[in-house]
Each structure stands twice: as C-alpha cells, then as structure tokens.
Amino acid sequence: MGLFYSLRGFFRSPGAPPRDAGIQSGQPGGYSSESAAEVTFDSAMQISPVWAAVKLISETIGSMPFNIYEVGPEGRKIATAHPLHRVLTRKPNQYQTDVEFWESMALNLAISGNAYAIIQRLGNEIVGLLPVSSSQVETTLLNDGTVVHAYTTGANVKVYGPQSMWHVKLFGNGIVGLSPLSYARNSIGIAIAADNRVSRVYSNGAKPSGVLTIDKTLTEAQRAQVRASFAGLEAGNDDRLFVLEAGMQYQQISMTPQDIQLLDSRRFQIEDIGRFFGVPSILLNQTFGQSSLGSNVYEILAAFYKLNLRPYLEKFEASVPRWLMEADEAGRYECEFDFDAALLRADLQTRMQANREAINSGQLTPNEARIDEGRPALPGGDKLLIQGAMIPIENAGLKPVQEVPSGTQESEPR
Q1: Are 252 and 275 in a shared domain?
Q2: Structural contact between residues 231 and 242, judged by C-beta atoms closer than 8 angstroms
Q3: Which of 138, 187, 241, 307 is the most exposed place for a label (fewest CB within 10 A)?
Q4: Are 288 and 263 in contact (CB under 8 A)?
Q5: Residue 76 near residue 70 (C-beta atoms within 8 A)
Q6: If you write DSSP's letter for every residue of 152-218 in order, what string do you get?
Q7: Which residue(s) pair with 250 in the sheet?
Q8: What count of Cα atoms within 13 Å lies in the side-chain half-sphere of residue 192?
Q9: Distance CA 197, CA 35 (A)
Q10: Phi, psi of 19 (to 5 degrees)
Q11: Domain coverage including residue 242
C-alpha cells in the first residue's frame, strides 16, 4: 500500500489528496525522509505532548453538554422527544455513557482524522451508536460514487454503507480525513528517539562512551581483563573510583546530552507536536517562555476554542443532521455543543454583573438567570423587566392607577 501511494505521488502533479475510486487513505503518499523511530498509535501515545494534546481534545469535547434543538416559529427548544436525543445525550450504546461516547469519537478523530460508529436500528429508528477504532475501518469509494466501510475484527470483515456506519472526518479529499498522526510521523519519531536516548543515558548512569588507551601492546587475555575491570567507566550505575595506571588514559567519544542539546530538542518537540494537533503549547503544560495567546487563562481558552477546538465541534454538529436524520427533518433540527456553559464560564463577579445587565435590559428574566446559575426558579420571576420602576415589560408606558382614600369622594370636574 505504501509503495503504491509513493509511486502514484511520484507521477502526479502536486495538489490536494486525490479522490479516485478505490480504497481511500488519509496517510501521506510518501515521506521526505525516514522517521527517527517507528511511530504507531501505542508508541506515539507514550510521548507526553501527544498524550496531552489528544487527551485535552477528547476529554474537553466529552465534557461539554450536547443537545438537539427543534427550530420553530417561536425560536428553538430542546427536542427531548426525538429518539436521537436520548442516544446522543444519555445512552449511546450498552457499553458507554454519553461522555465516554464523545471521548471515543473525538479520540479517533484527533488521531486518525476519521471517527466511525456503527448505527444500531430498531426498524427505521436509531437506538444506538457504537464507536469502533478507525484503524479497523477501511473506506472505499466505488465506481458508482457509493462509499462503503469495511470493518475488520479478527478474521471477520463486515461491510457497511452510509446508512449503517456514521463517519465523521477532518479535512481531506471529501471521502476520508487526513491523519494527524501519520503526517506528524517525523516530529513524533524525533520525540520517541529523544525519549529512548534519555532512557539509555540514565539507565547507564549518564556516562558517555569512550576509549581506554594503554601505551603498550596487550595480549588477548590482558585485553579481556582490562575490559572487565574498567567496563564501569562507560556502563552501569557503578560510581566507584577507578584508578588508571601504566599510562592508561580514558577519552570520551560520544556526545553528552548537553552536546546534542537534548533538553532543548525535547522542549521544541512539545511545541512542534502541539502544532499538528492544534493545541497551544501552554495548554500542554509547557511553561518555558511566554504564551503568545495572552496571560489570562480565559483568553487562552477562548483562543483555543475559536481557532482549534471549534472545527472539531462543527464536524460533529453538522454531521448529525446530515447522516443520522431523515431529509425532511434535518431542516427542523439543530445540534450544538454548549461550549460557553462548559468552558467559557466567567467568574462569579463577572457573571453576576452580566446577569444584572441582562435582566435590567429585558433580555433575561430573573428565573432564567437563576437557572443558568443552577438555582431554582422563584414565583413571579418569569416576567421580563426593564430598568427604572422594574415593572413587567407589558405595563411600560401605562398611566399608574391612583388609589382614592376610603370615605372621600372625587369632585366632579368643572
């Protein structure tokens, strides 16, 4: 497969990923150089910036409330009666909660650029969505334009059409998304090689290799004895004092971690890998230097949402009506992750000030503000108010009624 894509890429003109009939791939057609280390899902996830970036994207999406809204003449309301609402917000399948379901989908999307879920139906109604590993799915474009997905489990292969397999993808050729893990292979490979080097250095007591020189010719037996006696100079964690005699000299020949700037290289890999996954290095616990997104945590989260996380959310939000709903109902429903409530929630003082302004300007009722803060509604708090006398908005402009004291009689006008 790799050789085929390399040859195809050689004879093709540069451009976007091709969309020919046949098996679709989100991997590069070829690599400009060999990777410093083998990169697989398991080896990549052992690199801390990869783990942190994928975990941040997956768990953040999984933690956000998701709702399906029905749009009508009076606005929109949560469509609790729609069968998909139960599946996507409470019980997606027999194995997962809704949080775990969205985490699984986001994990596959962030790693491979494609997320798949088997659609479980009872009649024409969707009753479950079961995520599967994208590494077990092979997407094929048939000559008639149909897209099918072959799911491999052990020796069994099942083929699903679009009505039976939900497919969410990142940018690519329109059939499959490009794989961030595959395109970041060289950067991740360098990080893996650096980690391996650090492990070898510290398992060896951080001792560099070298040459032991002696000013006379030794026999085979003497050479073996010298190797055995002074092997600890370059190997092992033995820190005892060695005594060199008879003109022996030890010369270091390997580079130290300082010589190859190992620490700086590992620090740069955090930033480089973060770019592939769209995660600012400051959110990967990279504390070296200054954040270019702003020193305020709220500003950093807002920038991460707008520039990096929002495209992931849009993929899911647009895909649900397109692939999981009938054509006649897709226009009546909207899907949305509530990011503002989940991540961009301001501090208490800022929220109180915003609620006060919204209530005084007639944009929120007191009960709506209370519910947003997790407090119960109160009697009389469902009316919109305006600033001033704080009267119901429908009474604004009416002349107030003056009460007449009992026992008196108003004089007739002259």
Answers
A1: no
A2: no
A3: 241
A4: no
A5: yes
A6: EETTEEEEE-TTTEEEEE-SBSSSSB--HHHHTHHHHHHHHHHHHHHHHHHHTTTPPPEEEE-SS--
A7: 212
A8: 20
A9: 15
A10: -130, 70
A11: 207-256
406 falls within a domain: no
Task: For the chain, report the end-to-end CA distance as a whole number of angstroms.
Answer: 104
Residues 374 and 289 in one domain: no
Residue 7 in domain: no
The answer to whether residues 244 and 280 belong to one domain is no
Q: DSSP 3-state assignment of 387?
A: coil
Q: What type of residue sits at position 141?
A: L
Q: Within this chain, do residues 185 and 321 fall inside the same structural domain, yes or no?
A: yes
Question: What does the pLDDT read at residue 5?
Answer: 47
- Bridge pairing between strands 147-153 and 156-160: antiparallel
Asked if 319 and 244 sit in the same domain, the reply is: no
How far is the C-alpha of 8 from the C-alpha of 30, rounded, in Å? Answer: 9
Please tell me the predicted confidence (pLDDT) of residue 343.
58
Is residue 160 included in any domain, yes or no? yes
| d(C-alpha 310, C-alpha 302), whole Å | 10
Q: How many domains does the chain have?
A: 3
Residues 79 and 129 in one domain: yes
Q: Same structural domain for residues 273 and 250? A: no
What pLDDT is stored for residue 72 in this prediction?
85
User: Collapsing DSSP states into helix, strand and coil, what is residue 113?
Assistant: coil
Burial string for 149-183 (b: 16+ CB within 10 Å, else e) reads: bebeeeeeeeebeeeebbbbbbebbebbbbbbbbb
Helix (H, G, I), strand (E, B) or coil at 251: strand
Per-residue confidence (pLDDT) for residue 194, from 0 to 100: 82
Query: Final residue of a domain: which of 256, 275, 293?
Result: 256
Task: Output the CA–CA distances (angstroms, integers) from residue 357 to 158, 274, 347, 351, 381, in the order listed.
Answer: 57, 39, 16, 10, 16
Q: Are both 276 and 144 inside the same structural domain?
A: yes
Q: Which residue ranges in the chain fall short of pLDDT 50?
A: 1-2, 4-7, 10-11, 241, 259, 292-294, 414
φ, ψ (nearest 5 deg) of residue 77:
-140, 155
Query: What is the distance, to the nearest Å, from the Cα of residue 177 to the centroid of all Cα atoms in its chain?
Result: 15
Distances (CA, A) of 127 to 77, 84, 169: 22, 8, 22
The span from the CA of 394 to the CA of 391, in Å, is 8
165 and 115 in contact (C-beta within 8 Å)? no
